[in-house]
What we know:
eight-stranded antiparallel barrel; single chain; Lipocalin; 11 strands
Amino acid sequence: MATKNWVIDPSHSEVQFKIKHLMITNVTGSFNIFNASVQTENEDFTKAAISFTADVNSISTGNEQRDGHLKSADFFDAEKFPQIKFVATKYENIDNDGSYELYGDFTIKDVTKNIKLSVEFGGVVQDAYGNTKAGFTINGKINRKDFGLTWNAVTEAGGVVVSDEVRLIAEIQLIEQQ
């Protein structure tokens, strides 16, 4: 079987997170610089070798002051730990409608934990320029405190500023490398 190499199409992909603020609404953030390396046997992603990185300094929440705080030692400590990493350990089909579960080692700062992500496989197609592309919608949840992101504050009313649960959302389009 032929090994295929895939990379992210950055203009058709996005990596985001959502976290509750004051426990009443969600704030959305994104990483604007990220990369993945994927090797498959033909177009079978169930046996793929997958590694992903996001540049912490590319974090954007639409608020420069908040972005700076997230990059600080209170949260990601971007100076010391400039990347978030994910290396897949298992990718399995859970039904016949394109739903998969992706397991892997997720690293924030110097903490690595195995996490599970839900994946909707959109399929493989050729674009108008003859490039072979594969599409994935990825969702998951982590507890930020599990990764050493423990900063929080309490409001005057006794509520917390940010939740422990962080939702991960990604739309990933891969391009097969020739």
